[in-house]
Amino acid sequence: MATLTEAQMRNEVEKAYKTLDARLPTLLTQCDDGQQQRALMACRDALRDAFFAAQVQKLLDANPIVEHIFSELKSTENDFKQELQDIQSISQVIALGTELAKLAGALVTLAAA
Length: 113
Known about the structure:
Blueprint: H1 6-29, H2 34-56, H3 64-85, H4 90-112
């Protein structure tokens, strides 16, 4: 993989956050209970925090681990978007949202270190 640019990393974190944020109201209505709603909101909040952290931190790193996390983030975001096209399980949406938040946070933390 070519060396990642700061803009690429920020863009991927932003896409993950905005994808979930835009669909959150609809997704919340599909939750079975308050626990699932809180889990979705926690995913969105974690992605929002990673997004804003990326805005204030310089994100440049040629580290293979950072590149791997970036790749996983892109792949998971694609899976997330695909799941949103035809939601079969809100639990799967929450699981993918949680994974997005984890990867975005790891990317921002490692790339800024």
